[in-house]
Amino acid sequence: MDLPRLIEIRRKFPDRSLPDVYRAVREEMATAPWVSAVPAGSRIAVGVGSRGIANIGTIVRGVIDSWLDRGVKPFIIPVMGSHGGGTARGQREVLAHYGITEESMGAPVVSSLDVVEIGETPQGIAVSMDKEAWEADGIMLCSRVKWHTGFNGKIESGVHKMMAIGLGKWEGAKRYHMWAVRLGLEHVIREVGRIMLATGRMLGGLAILEDANHSTAEVHAIGAANMVPREEELLSRVKQWKADIPFEAFDLLIVDEIGKNISGSGMDTKVINRSALGRNCWPGLARIERIYARSLTPHGGGNAVGIGLCDIVHDRLFDAVDFAKTWINSFTASSTVGCMCPPHFSTDRECIERILATCGRADLSACSVVWIRNTMELGQMRVSENLYERLRGNPGVEARGTAAPIGFDRAGQIVGSIQIAAAA
User: How confident is the model over 123-128, as a mean pLDDT?
Assistant: First the structure.
């Protein structure tokens, strides 16, 4: 079958990257009043999550070194709900994937799923906290502030959500998402967060902001006393930096890799414009008719939440799925959409031809196609000629070469794309 010819484009996003991430972290920690108020000898839990945050190892090391310089005794805890298969060992391994180990950080990594109940919200939601964190002299969290993949609000993903959901571990995460079905996740985050903050155990957190190039742009040591308004302000700012796919509508999105390190939903739902709420559910984003995913990143240990947002996947992705981990994560979030399994075939050519044939065009070469590595990296992509015509004259877009057919080898697999052997 004749397929659309694609042209590679580069997009120019503002570069907001910090010149020295480690130094920026140390300076923030050094000037934060809530940090200097912690007495020497205190045992402080430093919570770290499971997302693919740029420079996360450097950032956490900067936090640990800041505490050590003050004579404080920090230790690291995974703060990630059901991720890592919902096991203490699995969550420790997730951190190790990002280079966060006792040897590299100079502080113990203490992973446990044990929790203690610390209170109840006015709605009757029992609030749990990681037992290791509860028994510490104080808690701080390292988290990226960004939009959430399942709802819109003034507080979405960030320090507050990690505190409310992640510190509850698997047990708490299941309970909170169950309540969120009726009350809404932002409401639950705020209500559970109030109980967490009222314990006096929370010191604050390091809020991490990334620019459209997935570079560390800002770090802010925000204290518990003003966590809510400060995070609302930071979220509002970082939303203005968000990168989208620059078209109103097109037929097929090809995604080289999906995974938990890319997004909690495998793909950023506010890029692909589909979620548990439905297809093309976010106003102002591109309307995408079909999605083909080619591989699963290895960092989630087989957790393929988000596979259900695809219309078709390659066998290499399907074969890499650990369905037990995927189901645990999906049901913990009180959702089944993300773990539903789409059709899968053994070659890229068959997947592309089969799914394009469902786009309602007799001539497949007339279909509109966008091809990206993943939903975090939108500075470089390949687009069909008919889409590129809409970008001509845009100073923020640069064409790289000329349009060319998708290259396949004799077996029908794509050649000339990113290396995906590790994911396979």
Answer: 94
Cα–Cα distance for residue pair 351/410, rounded to 1 Å:
15
Q: Residue written as tokens 């505490």?
A: 67
pLDDT tens, position by position, 284-324: 899 999 999 999 998 778 999 999 999 999 999 999 999 99
Tracing tokens 């029908």 back to the chain, one arrives at 412
Distance, CA of 212 to CA of 376 (rounded, Å): 8
Q: Are 296 and 423 in contact (CB under 8 A)?
A: yes
Helical ranges in 291-342 per DSSP H:
315-319, 323-332
Whether residue 252 has pLDDT greater than 50: yes
Is the confidence at residue 50, as pLDDT, over 90? Answer: no
Average of pLDDT values for 57-62?
Answer: 97
What the block records as the tokens of 34 is 């809530």
Sign of CA pseudo-dihedral 319, 148, 146, 324: negative
Cα separation, 292 vs 401, in Å, equals 25
Per-residue pLDDT, 417: 56
Report strand pairing: 202-210 vs 344-345: unpaired
Helix 323-332, helix 169-183: angle, nearest 10: 50
Topology given in CATH for the domain delimited by 21-239? Rossmann fold (3.40.50)
Spell out the residues 6+ positions from residue 215 whose beta carbon is closer than 8 angstroms to its own.
Answer: 15, 16, 17, 18, 54
Q: How many Å apart are CA 56 and CA 224, to the nearest integer?
A: 22
* pLDDT confidence tier of residue 183, bands split at 50, 70 and 90: very high
Residue ranges, CATH 3.40.50.11440, the chain:
21-239
| pTM of the predicted model over 0.90 | no
The contacts found for 17-23 with CB under 8 angstroms, 24 or more apart, are 17/211, 17/213, 17/215, 17/216, 17/217, 18/215, 18/216, 18/217, 18/218, 18/219, 21/55, 21/58, 21/59, 21/62, 21/216, 21/219, 22/58, 22/59, 22/61, 22/62, 23/62
The pLDDT, as a whole number, for residue 416 is 66
Place of tokens 């794309």: 417
Confidence of residue 419 (pLDDT cuts 50, 70, 90): very low
Question: Amino acid identity of 197?
Answer: L
SS3 state of residue 383: strand
- The amino acid present at 195, given as its one-letter code, is I
235 and 147 Cβ atoms separated by less than 8 Å:
yes
Packing angle between helix 56-69 and helix 21-31, nearest 10 degrees?
A: 40
